[in-house]
């Protein structure tokens, strides 16, 4: 807590706009004290009123994507302190990475737009940097500082989630786990290593419940009385959790690619299997007259061939699961369909290089063979967020419901327990209908052909939050700020002018 107390002293003294040397570096940074703003929970004054020291981001990048995006012009970074455990705020503080790109307009700055790109496990810092370069001189960039943060356990933020080494992750991928016993042994080993290498107290406090509270600390430290938020995919779950915890602290909230807050994890898996299957049908329809691999039978033949004789790529075996991963990765957007076509056609000719490349990218494996930790963070956070399934009997109906889908053919689902069944700490959230008295009307965007967060989940979230639903007709995961003029106009008008659509609409 010592560092947090230093921040309080800076706030009391009214230090602002000064230059200081950032601890652990020789680099000067600009100190800003803009908090506390808005309601401050008792015992958290030190965190809500802390100073932020902004400096160049380049040295903070760990992954290839982070290193590339953190060097973009106009980015600046800081570390914000939050309690590891909000039940004991004075016991231990952890640091979260924050990236900001200042509003480009000379006049009319509204405040900060805090962004979460999803996952869980994806870096908000990388997302904010990349989004700022895409938006250029858009009205949104002129009106808001774009702010992304790495949630606890993600990217450069603490606590560092460590479960398997990159070599251990690679070894797991190279095993065709075709029995319940083998899969459960892998799951139990993963959970055990997470507990040993990360720590149970750390694992107990990395869930969405705690990240939502971190967002309110960040809001205050940034100097905003209320939060303006843009959440994609899992970011809609995080936004919903924030809206429940701090409904009156929200200025505006866009939730795109919704996670249904009332759906169980098991229900969500079934819906995703079916949604990806429908997306695969749309891809194959597109492929009919131009692809060498253009039917389900063609795909099944590729899978059967790999089962009997895995293809070698650089000394690594390409298994049916890699084909599934490649297909899933490419079905997130129509723009990736030509990439998938090329990869599958090459595989049919005996070259699995492109398929393995897609699979590696989706699983966070860099060209150096190191994994970026995003998939590990996803599992760890999910295991804290959702009630575990420890009864195999509950999984049997799931296996029955997904039969007939291509994903189930290529990687037959087994009634095996996952890592969460062996998780060493209890879950901190459960599926439920959110209670958000006093919340402003949020805008929920749902895409009709979204394979990852099926359309109906957006309908449910809009109803639960009393929001306005924008239905986008397309085949992709999420839609706002991705080039559709109708969706972008609705989102911009809402975030900038607080202009709420009068009715649900379709773009």
TrEMBL record:
Task: Note whether Ribonucleoprotein occurs among the keywords.
Answer: no
The residues the entry assigns to the signal sequence are: 1-20
Q: Which Gene3D superfamilies match?
A: alpha/beta hydrolase
InterPro entries registered for this protein in UniProt: AB_hydrolase_1 (IPR000073), AB_hydrolase_fold (IPR029058), Pept_S33_TAP-like_C (IPR013595), Serine_prot/Carboxylest_S33 (IPR051601)
**Pfam families for this protein:** Abhydrolase_1, Abhydrolase_4
Report keywords, A-Z.
Answer: Hydrolase, Signal
Q: Which residues form the Peptidase S33 tripeptidyl aminopeptidase-like C-terminal domain?
A: 417-507
The answer to keyword Signal applying to this record is yes
Q: What is a GO molecular function of this protein? A: hydrolase activity
Q: Where is the AB hydrolase-1 domain?
A: 113-288
The family note in this entry says:
Belongs to the peptidase S33 family.
Protein known as: Uncharacterized protein
Q: Which organism is it from?
A: Actinokineospora bangkokensis
Q: Taxonomic lineage of this organism?
A: Bacteria, Bacillati, Actinomycetota, Actinomycetes, Pseudonocardiales
